[in-house]
Amino acid sequence: MGAPRHGGTRMRWLLGAAAFPALFLGLVLGMAELPEFGDPGSPASTHVSPRFIEDAAAETGAANMVTAVLADYRGYDTLGETAVIFAAGLGCLVILAAAGGRPNPPAPGMSHPFGSVILDTATRILVPVVLLFAVYVLIHGHISPGGGFQGGVLFGSGLIMMRLVWGPAHEGGTHRPDVTAFGPSLRGSLILACAGILGYAGIGLAAMAFGGEFLNYGTLPLGSDPAHVRELATLGIEAAVFLTVAGTVGVLFDTISIGMRESGVPLGSDRGPRE
Amino acid sequence: MAEGHLISIGLLAAMVVSAACALAVKDLLTAAALFGAFSFLTATWFALLGAVDVAFTEACVGGALTTILFVSTAFRTSRRFD
């Protein structure tokens, strides 16, 4: 947001100054056409929503409608989303590892663990709670807000937190000699993510093998009550999403801390204003 | 309802301010922290609208994870954006 310096920059400023109000006005005018927030007569509230609200709990065994829709009715969409997250992790791995050289063996990560009693103590107390809460969020996703995605992010963040404060995996003796490895290595994270996405697709294929459609879990031989079968399969899906997200989070953090470290090029150096 | 509107307007105004500040500051670490604040405000607003699942996701991903990733990236760079 510095002052304009060159002709091209000034041109871009002018374009931006013209485009911003135009876009703002367009969005505001578009918003005026939207139905009121919570309007019971809006198309969204009159077509599919009543069906989900009335039947989701009985059909899927999930009291949390969001979970029922995400992991059951729209399981195919969620498979795509999970694949996108996985692909993002892979992309980060390929690009940053290419910038930084070897992705394996697992890299040293943050070179200076923050040595502080407060951080150390807080981490020691917080991390187990975060990890446990992540699993709770996963398992409780049927009933309360949460599920595999949020749980996976929390779990991955908990693992990252240890690495941030105490140093990386496989680098024993940097700051806490009694703790040698924190969470999975880069390779381990990648395997977790792969296992998650394969497990998700596997549950879908298993439903096909037992005579249903892809990801239509009702046919799985897990019991006699179809709602209970769907509930179990949904938990399996959530666990697969959890693994994928937790693994991808680990891959992202590890590649960021390796790639730039080994490349020797500070990324900030080419970040100045472009001519 | 009026109270809800006031809280909404306050949250949205704070979001605009934190977003603008995140763009304006030169210190990447400060920008990352401001972006985290923006995410938490967004999450609060989502919760206010009744979208608790989305709010939870936003708090986890935006407030925690991306902030961590930004901070760890900022530590790898020259930290200042001039």
Number of helices of chain A: 9
Taken in chain order, the helices and strands of chain A follow as HHHHHHHHH
Query: Structural class, from secondary structure content of chain A?
Result: mainly alpha
Report the sheet-strand fraction of chain B: under 5%
**Helical proportion of chain B?**
over 70%
Strand content of chain A: under 5%
Number of helices of chain B: 3
Uncertain residue segments of chain A:
101-113, 169-180, 260-275
Q: Characterize the biggest β-sheet of chain B.
A: none
Spatial gap, N to C terminus of chain A: 15 Å
Number of strands of chain B: 0
The general outline of chain A is: globular
Description:
The complex is a heterodimer of chains A (275) and B (82). Chain A contains 9 helices and no strands. Chain A is mainly α and 275 residues long. Chain B has 82 residues and is mainly alpha-helical. In chain B, helix 1 packs antiparallel against helix 2. The longest helix of chain B has 25 residues. Chain B is flat. Chain B starts with a helix and ends in a 6-residue tail after the last helix. Classes of the chains: A mainly alpha (275), B mainly alpha (82). Chains A and B meet through helix 7 and helix 9 of A and helix 3 of B.
Strand and helix layout:
The complex is a heterodimer of chains A (275) and B (82).
Chain A (H helix, E strand, L loop, with lengths): L6 H27 L9 H4 L2 H12 L4 H9 L1 H26 L16 H23 L8 H19 L19 H24 L16 H38 L12
Chain B lengths: L1 H23 L3 H21 L3 H25 L6
